[in-house]
C-alpha cells in the first residue's frame, strides 16, 4: 500500500476526509489471491498496511466472504479480516469493492 496525498480533501457528499492514500489494487489483489478463510489449519497471507498513524504494520490476513463466491468473483469483490503480527490487538477489516475502491474499517 503506497502513501499518496495526505492533505484534507472532500468527497462528492462533502464529507471531510483527513487522509487519503493511493493503493496499488493490482498488487494488493495479487497478494490476496491465495487468502483463505480463517480456520484451524488455515495459513494467513501476510501483507503490510499503512496505519492511521502513518506507520507500516505487518498483518496476517484471511478471506472473510460476505456474499456468494460466484458474485464476488464476477464483480471482483473481496472482504478480508486480519490482525497485527507485532500487536495482535490491532484488528483490520477491509473490502475491495471493485477496480478502484478499498474500504478500511476498525
From TrEMBL:
It comes from the Bacteria. This is Uncharacterized protein. It comes from Chryseobacterium pennae.
Amino acid at each position: 500500500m503506497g502513501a499518496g496525498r495526505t492533505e484534507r480533501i472532500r468527497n462528492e457528499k462533502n464529507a471531510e476526509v483527513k487522509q487519503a492514500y493511493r493503493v496499488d489494487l493490482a498488487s494488493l489483489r495479487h497478494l490476496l489471491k491465495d487468502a483463505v478463510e480463517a480456520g484451524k489449519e488455515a495459513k494467513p497471507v501476510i501483507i503490510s498496511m499503512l496505519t492511521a498513524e502513518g506507520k507500516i504494520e505487518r498483518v496476517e490476513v484471511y478471506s472473510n466472504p460476505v456474499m456468494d463466491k460466484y458474485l464476488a468473483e464476477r464483480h471482483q469483490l473481496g472482504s478480508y479480516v486480519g490482525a497485527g503480527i507485532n500487536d495482535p490487538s490491532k484488528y483490520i477489516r477491509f473490502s475491495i469493492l471493485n477496480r478502484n475502491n478499498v474500504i478500511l474499517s476498525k
